[in-house]
Records
---
Amino acid sequence: MNNVTPRLAITSGEPAGIGPDLCLQLKAPASAELVVLGDRPLFEQRALQLGMPFDWPEYAADSPRPGQISLLHIPLEATCEAGQLNTANADYVLELIRQATMGCLNEEFSALVTAPVHKGIINEAGARFSGHTEYLAGLCHIDTPPVMMLATEGLRVALATTHLPLAEVSRNITRESLTTILRILNSELRRHFAIKRPNILVCGLNPHAGEGGHLGREEIEVIEPALEALRSEGLQLQGPLPADTLFTPPYLQRADAVLAMYHDQGLPVLKHMGFGRAVNITLGLPIIRTSVDHGTALELAGTGRADAGSMTIAINTALDMVSAS
C-alpha cells in the first residue's frame, strides 16, 4: 500500500477536441492532486466558451496538494479553435505526453492519465504516431512492447495486436508474441488488480476458432502451442475460443480478462457494454497509464455536451492501481 499522496499527470490531448472540455469538468479527489498539462490561454478561452469557472493555480513541484487541480503550462504552437484541427499544434500534443511521461519516470508523478489525441493530424504533421501505447513504449525505452487493455464493469479486454491493418494481423501473431503478452497480462492483473490467479480467456483468430483447421490453421499452429507452454508455467488460460461465443455470460462471468487477437475483435463488445464508462490501460510499462475510451469528438468540443465519465473512471482506475502497487 502506497501511503504517499498521489499526484496524477493529466494530458489534455488534442487542443481542438474535447480534451480541454473534459479537464475543465474534473474535480480533484480528496486524496490526490491532479496536474493538468496544457496551454493556459487555451483553457481560459474554452472555459469562457463553455461558461465554466477556471481558477487553477500554476503547478508547483514541491509537496503534493491533495484535493487540488493545478496547471503545468505548456504553450500551444498556434492559436486553436474548438473543432478545427491544425497540424501546427501536433508537436504540442506530443510534448504534453513527453513531459508527463518523464515526470512519471522520475517519480514526480504517480501515474499518467491521457485525454484523446488525433492520430491523423499528428501523422499529417510529419510525425510517425500509431497511438499512445506505441509512443509511450518508445519514451520509456522498453524492449518488450506494452499491452493495450480496455476495461469496463464486468469485462477486461487486452489485445494481441493493436493498431494494424487487418491484412497484417495474422503474420504479427506468433508464439513468441502471444507468450510475452500473456505473461505481461497475467503479471499485471496480479500486481495492479490484486487477482491472485487470473483466469484469462483467449480468442481464436478465425471464425469458429478455425473449425479444426478448415477455416485457418493459426489456432493449431500458433495459438494453442503458446497456451500449452504457458499452462505448464501455471497460467490459467482457456482457449483458443470462438470469439462469437466467448463474449457471452457463461464464459465472461468466470473470466478476469479476455485476450482478443485484434483491435476490432474485442473492443466493439467492450464499448457496447460500457462506452463512456470504460478505461484504456497500458500494461507492461514502467509507469501506470490510463486513458479515456473514446476519441477527440471534434464536433462536441466547446459545445458543453462532452461527457467526462470515462476521464473520471480513468483517474479513479489510476488511483486504484497506484494504491495496489
---
Amino acid sequence: MKTPFLVVGLCLSAVLLQACSSTSNTVRTPTPLAQGVDGRDLTLEWQVSVNKLSEADGRSLTIADDAQHLFVASSSGLVTALWKQNKSRYTDQVIWQTKYEAAILAGPVLADGKLLIGSAKGDLLALSPETGQVVWQTQLNSEVVSTPVVATGRVFVRTNDGRVIALNLQSGEVVWVADHQMPNLFIRGAAPVLVNDDKVYVGRESGFVEALSVTTGEAIWDARIVTPSGRTDLERMVDIQSGLVLHNDRLFVLSYNGRMAAVNPKNGNISWAKDISGYRDFVVLDNVIYLVDETDVLRALDPATGTEFWNQAALQYRLLGDVLIDSNFSVSRPSILLSDGLGYLHWIDPKDGHITVRFKHANHLKDGEKILRIHQDKKHYYVLDSDGGVTAYQDQNAPTTRPGGVKSSVNHE
C-alpha cells in the first residue's frame, strides 16, 4: 500500500523537497543576503492570525478574493472570510469563520458565487462566500490535493490516488473520472490541471504529461517528459509538481529530477528539452520563461529553444516560493517577485536578473515567517505565512496604471 506521507518523512522536513537530494547528503546553507539592495517601502495595514499551517499540507492552499473580501483556508480545517479594508480590530476584520473536522488541503477558489475547497477526507465543498454555509458537498474517496480549476461550467480537481475528476459546478455531481497509476513514492500534493479549449492537461507523478478530453476525460495523448533512473524509489522520483504553462501554442512542463520541456499541445510531441530539476510554479513574461530550479537558482530561458539568457544564484538555498509577476511594481514594466523561506520578498529585474529591492515580512513578534502565498490587488500585497498569519501591506508608491502591452502566461490564478 502506497503512503504519500513517506515522502514527508524523508524529504519535506524543511520545505517541499528543498533539502532532499538523490545525489548528496550535504546540508544546504541559505545564501546570505547581498548588501546594497534597497528596502521596499510597504506599509503594514492589518494582520490577522487564522491558524498555523502545515507546510506539507499547504501546497495547494490559495488566497481567493473579490472586490471587498479575502478568503483563506488552513490545514487545520478553518476557513476564514476577511475584509480587505482595514477595520482596526480583529473582531471587525473577520467576517465569518467555519471550522471543519478534516484538514483543508486545497483552495479556496472563488467562482460563480461559490467558494471551493478540498479536504483531507476526500470532500470537495462549495461554500457560500457570504456566510460560509455549504452549498454542496461531494465525497471523492481520496484526499483532494490540487487547487480546484473552474472552466466550461465544471470544477476539475486531482486526488491523492492519481485521479483527475470533473464535477458540475452548480450541483457538485461527478461528470467523469480519469485514473492514473501512481509510482511507489511521490511528492505530497499535485499541481492543478490546465484547461484550454477542448483539452485538460495534466502533469503526472510518473514523469508524463497528458491531454484529456474536457468533455469525457478520455486520454487524447500522453508524452514522457523524463524517464525515472536510479536504484531506489527516492532516486526515481520524477514528479511534475510545477503548474503547466501554455504560451504561443507550446505547453511548457517542468519536472523534479528531470527536465524542462516544450510540448506541442495538439499531439504531445516534444519540441525541446533541457536538463533542469524544479517543482515550483513558473511564468512566461514578454516571451521569456522565468523559473526557479531545485537549488533555488532563478533562470531565464528562451521559449523557442530553451537557451538560457541568464541565471541568478544570489538567493540559492533560501527556500524560494513560486515565481510571480508583479505588474504593480513599475509603470514602465512589471517585475519578477519571489518570496523565500526566511520571510523576505525579493523584486527582480526581468531583463538581467538583478535584485532591485527587498522587504522583510514579519509576524507580531517581528520574526520572519515562511511565506506560503502572495496575492496582489492594485496597491496591496496580501501575504499568507506558515504561522497562519494573513497580512495586508500597502504600497504608497505603486503606479496608478498598470504597464501596457505586457504579455504574460501563468499556470493558474
